[in-house]
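Minutes, project huddle
Topic: does the predicted pose make sense with fe (ii) ion bound?
PN asked that the exact inputs be recorded in the minutes so nobody has to dig through chat later. Recorded below.
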Amino acid sequence: MAYGKTESKNESVKDTGLEQVIIMLREDLIGELEAINQYQAHIDKIDNDEVRGLLEHIRDDEKEHVAEITHLLARIDVIQREKFAEDHTVAPEERVVNESSHDDEKVATIGNMFGKK
Ligand SMILES: [Fe+2]
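Predicted holo structure (tokens), as shared on screen:
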């Protein structure tokens, strides 16, 4: 199987060949990303500061989980690691972050990615 969930729920939970582990991590990554979106949607609708603050904290934890799983995938999946090694989003001369930037300007934000400060 090249990608996807296991075909049978009766498959051994110890079927942890490397390809199967990578597939599971990708599925976990999807779940973490969906969780971020769900928490954000709820944050945007809730008017209570305490509840919203807690959900923002949980949302940020989910972002950490995305980073952890992504880094783990990069360690395990050689092709993925090679793809992460280079920014494929824009041509090098068009990147917001470049070597000549000041340290505080090296952080890409939604604003500076779209030309806003
Ligand atoms: Fe999570």
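Observations noted during the meeting:
- The CA atoms of residues 17 and 45 lie 42 Å apart.
- The first helix runs from residue 18 to 45.
No decisions taken; revisit at the next huddle.
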